[in-house]
């Protein structure tokens, strides 16, 4: 009996294929309900329902803690259990790129809204862009600095990434840390610009298009910063090796995407749309 | 005879399988995983140095120059605002109440002002209501 | 028959002709353009300047009356969304 069990156990512990057959997990269904709570809470809150803010907070906490628990499992599978073979890594990276493509289309719709409203301004805003009463931000002040900050952070993350591959731990940590510092500087400067701007999100379609596009990008910067921060912590904790750091590479791909979106925002919304 | 044929067949099959899965094997020698990895690391050491130079000798000076430029630009803006205020008796000229400005069909969940409300640059909608 | 011909000759019914700047069915911008052009014209040349009248005719025939009265109110309050300086 025992002998048989050991034999069977050894057999199921050896696999003849490179794929990762995932174990049963509670997180997909839990996160589905968390996201439902999150979005429902957002709707209730924004429409002024009783305790809408409470449902929103609960949804946010459930979603973020559910994500942390799920990612903890993925990190153990990758770092400790060796489930992420080359084949699995290819699949994961394909998933990351498909996700980024979907993000491109999300931003495309916001840019569409911006160009729809600005290329042929409605008579309600006097047929001009920017409309009377709006003092647009000077693109060659803080937005220019933000552009340089994001481009530099792209160079720093490449430095950190190549150092990680070369096995240069110190440089990998330096490069990633510099990226995170510049990312936080960017977010801080955007906050400053938002509070110094003479127009708000409720100032006609100019305000809506401006804050919807730059705000969506700002949220992505915050998410990208957390993404890189996770990579940083994992480098410091010796999770990532020279040849095995798929999560970090996903963060880098995401960061470059956020960077490119900013270049388009700077050209279209700040430079062309503010002239 | 048939035994010999079977053995030859088997060893050829094994050989082809081995070439196919060479990418996964950790055997030493050119084309092996270890050799590939060593080549990648060697290449990465060079590119790390290149990107270190770009970061420290390219990006940092660029950021420093840009900070100086932006500092001047912002100071100019502030001076211009002060000038406009002085011309207008201590406060900025009132923006006409265009229909599309400061739209509030109903309050935000947290009140009448936006989350980035700044009394110096935005109209206080809390006082309007 | 001859009687009705007489009445029509007294009241000339006229609408605006085709304007190549506004080739689409939607004439909203045509109406707005003529409204602003009229007030720019009379600011520059005075209310009695005859050529300005064509803009007034055009916007009166293109614009809904509600829009005209709303814009008139906005001009009075200084909240008209476009500049009327020539």
UniProtKB/TrEMBL annotation, chain A:
Protein topology in the membrane: Multi-pass membrane protein
Record's protein name: Cytochrome c oxidase subunit 3
Pfam families reported in the protein's UniProt record: COX3
GO molecular function: cytochrome-c oxidase activity
Subcellular location: Mitochondrion inner membrane
Function: Component of the cytochrome c oxidase, the last enzyme in the mitochondrial electron transport chain which drives oxidative phosphorylation. The respiratory chain contains 3 multisubunit complexes succinate dehydrogenase (complex II, CII), ubiquinol-cytochrome c oxidoreductase (cytochrome b-c1 complex, complex III, CIII) and cytochrome c oxidase (complex IV, CIV), that cooperate to transfer electrons derived from NADH and succinate to molecular oxygen, creating an electrochemical gradient over the inner membrane that drives transmembrane transport and the ATP synthase.
GO CC annotations on file: mitochondrial inner membrane; respiratory chain complex IV
Catalytically driven reaction(s): 4 Fe(II)-[cytochrome c] + O2 + 8 H(+)(in) = 4 Fe(III)-[cytochrome c] + 2 H2O + 4 H(+)(out)
Organism the protein comes from: Pleurotus ostreatus (Oyster mushroom)
Family designation: Belongs to the cytochrome c oxidase subunit 3 family.
Biological classification of the source: Eukaryota, Fungi, Dikarya, Basidiomycota, Agaricomycotina
Record field: transmembrane: 21-46, 52-71, 92-115, 140-159, 171-189, 209-233, 254-273
PANTHER family per UniProt: CYTOCHROME C OXIDASE SUBUNIT 3 (PTHR11403:SF7), CYTOCHROME C OXIDASE SUBUNIT III (PTHR11403)
Automatic annotation (TrEMBL), chain B:
Superkingdom of the source species: Eukaryota
Pfam families, per the entry: COX6A (PF02046)
GO MF annotations, alphabetized: enzyme regulator activity
Annotated compartments: Mitochondrion inner membrane
InterPro entries documented for this protein: Cyt_c_oxidase_su6a, Cyt_c_oxidase_su6a_sf
GO cellular component terms given for this protein: mitochondrial inner membrane
Family: Belongs to the cytochrome c oxidase subunit 6A family.
Protein name: Cytochrome c oxidase subunit 6A, mitochondrial
From TrEMBL, chain C:
Pathway: Energy metabolism; oxidative phosphorylation
PROSITE patterns in UniProt: CHCH
Keyword Disulfide bond in record: yes
Keyword annotations: Disulfide bond, Mitochondrion
Cysteine-cysteine disulfides: 31-63, 41-52
Domain of life: Eukaryota
Gene3D superfamilies named among the record's database cross-references: Cytochrome c oxidase, subunit VIb (1.10.10.140)
Role according to the record: Component of the cytochrome c oxidase, the last enzyme in the mitochondrial electron transport chain which drives oxidative phosphorylation.
Name the UniProt record assigns to this protein: Cytochrome c oxidase subunit
Protein's gene: COX12
